[in-house]
Structure formats: C-alpha cells, structure tokens
Description:
The structure holds 2 protein chains of 2 kinds.
Chain A: H1 8-14, E1 19-28, E2 31-41, E3 46-50, H2 57-64, E4 72-77, E5 80-81, H3 87-92, E6 95-98, H4 109-119, H5 124-137, H6 153-165, E7 171-175, H7 183-200, E8 204-208, H8 211-217, E9 220-225, E10 228-233, H9 235-240, H10 245-250, E11 255-265, E12 268-273, E13 276-281, E14 289-294, E15 300-302, E16 312-324, E17 327-333, E18 338-344, H11 345-351, E19 358-363, E20 368-372
Parallel strand pairs in A: 3-8, 3-9, 6-7, 7-8
Antiparallel strand pairs in A: 1-2, 1-4, 4-5, 9-10, 11-12, 11-14, 12-13, 14-20, 15-19, 16-17, 16-19, 17-18
Helix pairs in contact in A: 4-5, 4-6, 5-6
Chain B: H1 2-16, H2 20-53, H3 59-70, H4 74-85, H5 101-126, H6 129-137, H7 142-152, H8 154-169, H9 173-179, H10 189-199, H11 202-232
Helix pairs in contact in B: 1-11, 2-5, 2-8, 3-5, 4-5, 4-9, 5-8, 5-9, 6-7, 8-11, 10-11
Amino acid sequence: MSLEQDSxxxxxxxxxxxxxxxxxxxxxxxxxxxxxxxLQVMPDKVLAIIGPNGSGKxxxxxxxSLLLKPTTGxxxxxxxxxxxGASILQMRRxxxxxxxxxxxxNTSVWDNVTMGLHLRGFKRQEIKKRAEHWLERFGIASxxxxxxxxxxxxxxxxxxLARAFVLQPEVLFLDEPFAxxxxxxxxxxxxxxxxxxxxxxxxxxxxxxxRNEAQTLAHRVAVILNGSIVQMGSPKEIFSSPATEDIARFxxxxxxxxxxxxxxNDCVADIDVKGYIVQGxxxxxxxxxxxxxxxxxxxxLLLSKPSSSARNVFPGKITATIPSGPLVRITLDxxxxxxxxxxxxxSADDLKLGIGMTVYASFKVTAIHVIAVK
Amino acid sequence: xxxxxxGIKQAFLLLIHGxxxxxxxxxxxxxxxxxxxxISLLIGIPFGSMLGLTKFPGRRVLISLINTGMGSxxxxxGLIVFIFLWRNGGPLGFLHILYTPVAMGIAQIxxxxxxxxxxxxxxxxxxxxxxxxxxxxxxxxxxxxxWLLLKEARLPLLAAVMAGFGAVISEVxxxxxxxxxxxxxxxxxxxxxxxxxxxxDFAFGIALSVILMVLIYIVNVILTSIQQRxxxx
Lengths: 374, 233
C-alpha cells in the first residue's frame, strides 16, 4: 500500500513550505555533525529523512522541531524566522514529536495521552473528546486507566502516538517510531499509521533508516549521509536513481561494479566490467568511468544458460549462501567480479543451490542503475 | 545489668505516664528537625534540579562541594555556626540567637541541605535525558518540564526526604554546640540522651532513645510504604 505520490515540483509551485531550514549546522566540540543549507517541509505531505545510524537525521529532526538550537542558521515557520526566547514555546506547541522509545511518564495512559493538552490549557471537555477519539483510533481505549509501566512495547508506542495526535499538530515528527518494536507489532502499527496519515493528511517528518517505511509513507525523501543531505526527491527517484555510490548502497543496491563505458547507442550503454560487458540504460558518455549498481532482488539465478535474448547473463560459482528470514542471499564469483542475489528460500531449495555450484546470473538492462564516477 | 533493667523500667513508666519533660523534648525535636527538613527541601530540590539539568562554569566545583557537604561531620557544622553566631565578635552575633532553637535549626539546615540537594541532583540525572526532550516536545515550558521531571522522580526523591530528616533528627554535635542543651529551652532528643551520661539519669535517656528510634521508624515506614506502593502499582 502506498500513499499518493506527488511530484515535488508540483508541491513547491502550489504551496509554501510549513517549515524551512536555512543554512543550519550543528557543531559538537570541533565536530560538525549537521550541515544542511536548505530543507523544506511541505504542507500535508510526508517528508522522510533517511540515512544510516549516526548520519545526523535525528539531529536534523530536533532542529526542525525546535528542540535543538542549531549552531548556525535558522528555522522558518510559514516564512517567518522562528525567534529565540519565550515565544519559541508557542511555536513548539504547534508540533508533536514521537521518539523511538515511547517515553511515557509514570502515570496512567489517560494522563499521558492528555498531558500535552493540559500543558496547553485546553478545556476538560475538549481534552476528553480528543483523548477518547485517539485512544479508540489506536486501539488502546480499553486500558486508558492502566499505568503506562504495565504496557507492552507496542501498546506503549500506540499511547505515545495517540499522545501526539491528540494535539492535532501542524507538523508531526516521527523519529523512528517503529524501530524498537518486534516484527508483528511493527507491521500492525505501521498499517494503522498508513491509514491515519492518509486520513489526517498531517504534515509529517519521518526519520527512519528503514527503506520500506520511507518508500511506503513518504511523498518526498531526503537522504542524509555524514550530516549532509546528499539527495532529495520522490521515493521513486531516490530508490531507482540514487545519485552516488554511497546512496545506492544505502538504498539497497548492494552490487556495485566499476567499469568503463565502451559504447552508447540510444541510451543503452555497453560497460566493460573487468573484461565482461554489462549493458544498462545510461546517458553516460563513452570512455567515462561508471559504477553499475544492481539490487540483489533484481538478479535471477538459473541452472543453465537461458535461451532467451537476455542481455546480461553471467556464469558464476556460488561462494556463500546466507539465509535472511524467508530469503537467501547468494554470492557468486563471476570471474572478475562478484554478484549477490536475493532469492526466496523455496527457490534456493528447488534449485538445490550449494557452495561451489555454477549457476547463471541474469538481470535486465533496466534493472541496473549507472552512476558516473566523478 | 540491674542498672540497665531498672533504666528500661523507669523509661517505660515515663512514657506511659506522659512525662511532661519527655513530651516537651520530643515536640521540640520534631519542630526543629521538621522545619529544618522542610526548608532544606524547599531550597535543595530546586537547587539540585538546576544542577542536574544545566551546565555552567564552576558546576563541577559546586557539585564536589555538595558531595563534601553530604558527609560533613555535624560537630564541624556546629562549630562554624557557633562562631558565626557567637555574641562576642561573631559576624552574626548581633542576632542574639545562639543557644536558641533557631540556631539549632540553622545548623540542621546546613547539615541536611547538601544531602537533599545531592539526592535530587542524582535523581534528576538518572532520568532518561530523552524524557526531557519528550516533555518539552509535548509543549511544556521549562518550569513545567522541571515539575514533571520531579513528579516522575517522586519515588527516588522520597529517599532525599528520608535521608534529610534522618540526618537532622539523629545528629547531636551541632545541636549540642549551638543549642547548649538547656533544659526546657533547647534540649532535644539527642542532646537530652547525651546529657543523661553526665547526670546519670539513664531512665530519662532510655526513654528519649526509645522515642527517637520509634520516630525514625515511623517516618521511614510511611515513606517506604509510599515508595513501594508506587513501585508495585
């Protein structure tokens, strides 16, 4: 299930950003952990900030949610610079943040969920109305009187999300809210979040290192590596056309083969990879050094050479088989380079794959992404 | 042995008959130590919270001073307070409060304040730092955040109350020095017990000891029951 995908250019043309980071950096000691010249959060859309652990995505989220003052630069809210001092509290009260850990206080679920409303001075009737709605929506109404310490991880995170949604925030920040949950709980809560975000159209900043979450929930994705945003675009752009080798690796293109473009006819390039010719869609010029990126799941393994006209077929000897849940990662030595394929466990059993066997790896011309080496 | 048994017997007679001296000493002890503890809490909890939540130049020096204060001998505190309040040349001698319950209260505040401050600071620092961010993210002002953190740490903070009250109700050196153990005016449970050694009135001393132990026990039972109720809820 996927949210509606909008072109970023359409969004920018039709609406102004709710939040905008301008030239922000965060320095700890003499180490710069964040350096973002510009970032826009568009209204009613989900922006995913993705990156590996320690890349600075949470620091960026804290700056945007006004919980961390950047060392340089500033945040603009609806075109106005967010001031320092007491008025920052009023700005912060327009947002809600959900962290990876539920961080509930040692009191009842009801008290936790209504806490933000009490802090904002809402009337009792409004508090009751909102809290009952969101407790029900997140399926935790039956234990609203229970102490938060008695909740399971999934229940606690539901309470944490309800606590954020009761505030009806103008911007919702989700900082890896599913990361600490077990798989069934995560899937259940994730499914609910897809529906809730679709219903509410809440402007959301989702921080995650999970590519699936970003692909499913986000309208736009910002990739952050070593404190800098290295690519920004629609999920399709980010996950099918990563701008650099590092981004390609992060978005799951585990096979990275360096080669030289030896010919290019109508954007189908022949690339010499250690004496083997790999064909792929590319606009790269002849003679240019490139990296050929291929997702493991786009590689098909066959016991015999296919009779079809598949352009990229390479024999290889299996050097490793690593089970990964219902899938198996198969590593092949193809002579000059190695390839990793991801196939189902059932397929691996059917093919009776084992270390030392020779198989044929096949992938489509359109399955590869060619990145020019600068 | 006979002396001890006779002392215990006399002590229970004093307690059963509600000896006016015993009652007066007990009430004065509770008033002085109670007020000293309350004032220490009023100052120590905000001060400890500030030390636990903020960073500023000289903070480490301040913390090490507080840690030293937590273990400072009451007799040293008593000597310092005595010198300050000494009527013949002490900087605060003009107040004429030496040998009064007020002087004893001041000494007891100085004893319990570092304990309450130190416990509060440690308690606040033990809370998950992300909890502060979460509370701020919920829209709390700085004051509201501190209040919510203290509420969250209410159970460990009871340890600060226990330790603060326990330290002052049972100290003798400072109160003896600045109070003078004047019968009917500044005699409290601990100084009264010490006084019995010189007078030989062991029955009175044992009676006061029983009361002191019972008082400490009652206070700790109440606080522990609150603490355990919170943990098992």
